[in-house]
Write a structure and sequence with these properties.
Elements lengths: L1 H23 L5 H14 L4 E4 L8 H4 L5 E7 L5 E7 L1 H4 L6 H16 L13 H17 L19 H20 L28 H12 L16
Parallel strand pairs: 1-3
Antiparallel strand pairs: 2-3
């Protein structure tokens, strides 16, 4: 009888774990996104950041089905820099989206504003590769530290993480790569591959995006605190 009861206990624990895993995957709710936004804003409380401006209505951006994020900044009459980040509801409703992925999108967009050199031609906005690197190397660890652990953390695909934060960054990377793949479906990317390209100069064209594989390599390099990959970056730029 005791053995049977033990088996039932184990089965219940496994079933409960499975249910949590199922619930933690897929789209995120508006309340979950608000929680991510709060953690993000607390992490950069020294900056003036607005996520999804309410000027167009409370739910305007959330109701849009676009599957990407956007960034802009302006300097007001007092000389203060203001950062606007837009996260459309269609992005949250993607089946691969997680709270870690939403935080990574916000970090990438902020990276365009404060990620530093190299920047796009005739602009102060960091190039895409630099925004990706800033997101996983600098921003996302800060934000995740202020977020509750709402997603079960699997082993990272490369089995190289030594901390739970690092593993959660990889959860975010998987979501982000689903977004990148959706918007650039003609390019494949895999964790067990790398982009072999070695550039001699950094492409600062405002409309340029590195390959999907190069962006994955960059996100992983940031998560593992490794140098930026040469598929978009050259060491001629000072850190």
């Amino acid at each position: 009888m005791k053995k049977t009861f033990k088996v039932i206990q184990i089965f219940i624990v496994l079933l409960f774990t499975l249910l949590i895993s199922i619930q933690s995957q897929g789209e995120i709710s508006k309340d979950e996104f608000i929680g991510v936004s709060d953690a993000f804003l607390k992490s950069y409380s020294e900056l003036s950041i607005i996520i999804n401006s309410k000027l167009a209505g409370e739910d305007f951006w959330w109701n849009l089905n676009e599957k990407y994020g956007s960034f802009s900044k302006y300097i007001d009459a007092q000389g203060k820099t203001n950062y606007n980040i837009f996260f459309f509801g269609g992005l949250a409703r993607m089946p691969e989206m997680t709270v870690e992925g939403a935080a990574l999108v916000l970090c990438h967009e902020l990276g365009h504003g404060i990620g530093g050199a190299p920047t796009k031609l005739n602009s102060e906005s960091s190039v895409e590769g630099q925004a990706d690197y800033f997101a996983t190397r600098i921003c996302l660890p800060k934000v995740l530290d202020k977020m509750p652990k709402t997603t079960l953390v699997p082993a990272d695909p490369l089995n190289l993480c030594k901390t739970e934060i690092c593993k959660r960054i990889f959860v975010g990377i998987i979501s982000e790569m689903a977004v990148i793949q959706f918007n650039h479906p003609d390019q494949a990317s895999r964790f067990d591959k790398v982009d072999p390209t070695i550039v001699e100069t950094i492409n600062t064209n405002p409309t340029f995006y590195p390959s999907n594989q190069c962006r994955l390599d960059t996100l992983v390099a940031g998560a593992l605190e490794k140098p930026r990959p040469r598929c978009w970056w050259t060491p001629t730029i000072k850190d």
